[in-house]
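[09:14] KT: can someone run the structure on this one? pasting the chain below
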Amino acid sequence: MRKLLAGIGALALLAASPVVANASSLSVSPTTIDLTAPEAASTIGLTNNGSKPVTVQLRVFRWSQVNGKEKLTATNDVVASPPVTKMQPGKDYTVRIVRTSKKPIAGEETYRVLVDEVPVKSQAKPGVVGFIIRHSIPVFFGSADGAGPDVKWAVAKSASGASLVVQNAGDGRLKLTDLNLSQNGKALVNRQGLIGYVLGGSTMTFPLGKVKGLGSSPLVVKASSQNGPLTAKAAVSSR
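[09:31] RB: done, structure tokens below
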């Protein structure tokens, strides 16, 4: 597991380094799997858009958030079948994602499927670092009577910048997108696209950087979630 997480970190470092990367020919859909019990299986579609065969590896990990950090843990409760496949050019493949655990679902179980195109050693060139983009697909298994997110908001400011602190005491995750923060009618932050997830029973902190004009009065939070638009208040604290 340490090697896996080190590999994820290495990918992030490589993205910022002056290296040459192989363009991925692999497309994956859907980008999220969301199932409610008694549903226990779904599929992922893979397409090789390239002109050469590719080998693809799929691994499933339990996904949690501990002390504000993402954590992936090896599991056999959910599996990918088949876990490895060789794909011919221009072909579509289907992989099943199956929850094998027989334990009743309490609240929401969260996983990630990592889909990797395995580099071909024979194509490696001296002085060139080759890597393939990793697809990371969130997978959610929820109970029919599970409660959704129950969220409290805060903004912490310091000399280095401000952060949005989101505490989710509910059973289900919050998917936060298209964030807008305003104070006393003045817009301070506008971030489009995915901000991140806050899983049930977790707290996450999202850096905002330097926020010009940020005072001490509460902020109005407007954003989108998997359940639609939301509006809330966020107290401001210093640290």
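[09:33] KT: thanks! The longest helix spans residues 2-15.
[09:34] RB: yep, looked fine to me
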